[in-house]
Design a protein that fits this description.
The radius of gyration is 21 Å and the shape is globular. Helices cover 53% and strands 7% of the residues. The protein has helices spanning 19-31, 44-47, 54-71, 88-97, 102-106, 109-115, 123-137, 151-168, 213-222, 239-252, 256-262, 268-294, 297-326; strands spanning 6-11, 37-42, 79-82, 143-145, 176-178. It folds into two domains: 6-184 and 297-326, HUPs (Rossmann fold, 3-Layer(aba) Sandwich); 203-292, Orthogonal Bundle (Tyrosyl-Transfer RNA Synthetase). Strand 4 (143-145), helix 8 (151-168) and strand 5 (176-178) form a beta-alpha-beta unit. The structure holds adenosine-5'-triphosphate and magnesium ion. Adenosine-5'-triphosphate binds at residues 11-12, 14, 20-21, 24-25, 146-147, 149-150, 184-186, 195-199. It catalyses: tRNA(Trp) + L-tryptophan + ATP = L-tryptophyl-tRNA(Trp) + AMP + diphosphate + H(+). A motif ('HIGH' region) lies at residues 13-21. InterPro entries: aa-tRNA-synth_I_CS (IPR001412), aa-tRNA-synth_Ic (IPR002305), Rossmann-like_a/b/a_fold (IPR014729), Trp-tRNA-ligase (IPR002306), Trp-tRNA-ligase_bac-type (IPR024109), Trp-tRNA_synthetase (IPR050203). Belongs to the class-I aminoacyl-tRNA synthetase family.
């Protein structure tokens, strides 16, 4: 289309977007809009893999799309759409599933974490990375900008692409993950050994893009800290304060060593007070645009419809090739 490499990014409508999603993924997506031919997908089929309330899914889909637009995704330059609007994702998922093995899916860290402690583990959680591979391969994406947690899934996507190409002939681009070192893994505010997640049952564990200033101040004030009061970056021994330093550094655009110097001898509470103001200021323009979009939700829905039409065109063409390579359907009449 543009001659630029294509990038594919997905995000689940599983809850309010948090600063981990923003710093680890969305912010980079916005910055890279001119570098790649971008597709941004709200992956609602993935959001079904854990128990959810059907009446909440559509509002959440619109909310996530609004957050992306408010953060600076430009639908003129990029394709923004909803996964379930393009049926080809599920068709390709099935085909790739015939190539994936039980053993490799069982080894996925996300599967192990998301199924831990549940009596009933849906097969969807198990199949999650195969659907993700389909999302990416369907559009010949060369680059997948993600947070660190998705590295293993992109590795699987690469393996499935290569396996398909070996079995049925050269068909798919083998994609590369693009993981930025800074912000790739923002941790929970209540447990710095766990990543910040939309699906964490404790809302105090994350700061959402929509959180009002008072809520942000409270969450940061109550965030877990490490023993000893020194503001120093040491992920091994001081994971909590190191996480807060990362958040501060990315929002304020100040390198971590400079922050360590500024807060030398000052203790956690002053640091946290300033951090709250930095986060509030960083989110303010996004929140303002979110309010503007909320006043006219038709804009978001029309944008997603237009995006789906453009994505569908690409997906249908690719699936014709895939079906042919796999020998599916009827032979042509001559
Ligand atoms: P869920 O808990 O429902 O899985 P999530 O917070 O993990 O939600 P996703 O929709 O799964 O969010 O992921 C969207 C993008 O955000 C992905 O690129 C993912 O790598 C990135 N991401 C998610 N959590 C973090 C985090 N804590 N730090 C940095 N990036 C993250
Ligand atoms: Mg996730």
């Amino acid at each position: 289309m543009t001659g630029k490499p294509r990038a594919f990014s997905g995000i689940q409508p599983t809850g309010g977007i948090h600063i981990g999603n923003y710093l680890g993924a969305i912010r980079n997506w916005v910055l890279q809009q001119d570098q790649y031919d971008n597709m941004f997908c709200i992956v609602d089929l993935h959001a079904m893999t854990l128990p959810y309330d059907a009446s909440e899914l559509r509002p959440r889909t619109v909310e996530v799309a609004s957050a992306l637009l408010a953060a600076g995704i430009d639908p003129q330059r990029s394709i923004l759409f909803v996964q379930s609007d393009v049926r080809e994702h599920t068709e390709l998922c099935w085909i790739l599933g015939t190539l994936a093995t039980y053993g490799e899916l069982r080894r996925m860290t996300q599967f192990k974490e998301k199924s831990k402690g549940s009596e009933r583990v849906g097969a969807g959680v198990f199949f999650y990375p195969v659907l993700q591979a389909a999302d990416i391969l369907l559009y010949d994406a060369a680059v997948v900008p993600v947070g660190e947690d998705q590295k293993q899934h992109i590795e699987l996507t690469r393996d499935l692409a290569m396996r398909f190409n070996r079995t049925f002939g050269e068909t798919f681009v083998v994609p590369e993950p693009d993981i930025k070192p800074a912000g790739a893994r923002i941790m929970s505010l209540t447990d710095p050994l766990k990543k910040m997640s939309k699906s964490d049952p404790d809302p105090e564990s994350r700061i959402e893009l929509r959180d009002p200033p008072d809520v942000i101040r409270r969450k940061i004030r109550r965030a877990v800290t490490d023993s000893e009061a020194e503001v120093r970056f040491d992920e091994e021994r001081k994971p909590a304060i190191s996480n807060l330093l990362t958040i501060y550094s990315l929002f304020a655009d100040v390198p971590i060593p400079e922050l360590e110097r500024r807060y030398a001898g000052k203790g956690y509470s002053e640091f946290k007070r300033d951090l709250a103001e930095v986060v509030i200021a960083g989110l303010q323009p996004i929140q303002q645009r979110l309010d503007e979009l909320a006043a006219d939700p038709g804009i978001v829905i029309r944008t997603l419809r237009g995006g789906a039409a453009r994505a569908r065109e690409l997906a249908v063409a690719k699936m014709a090739v895939v079906r042919d390579r796999c020998g599916l359907g009827l032979p042509p009449l001559d």
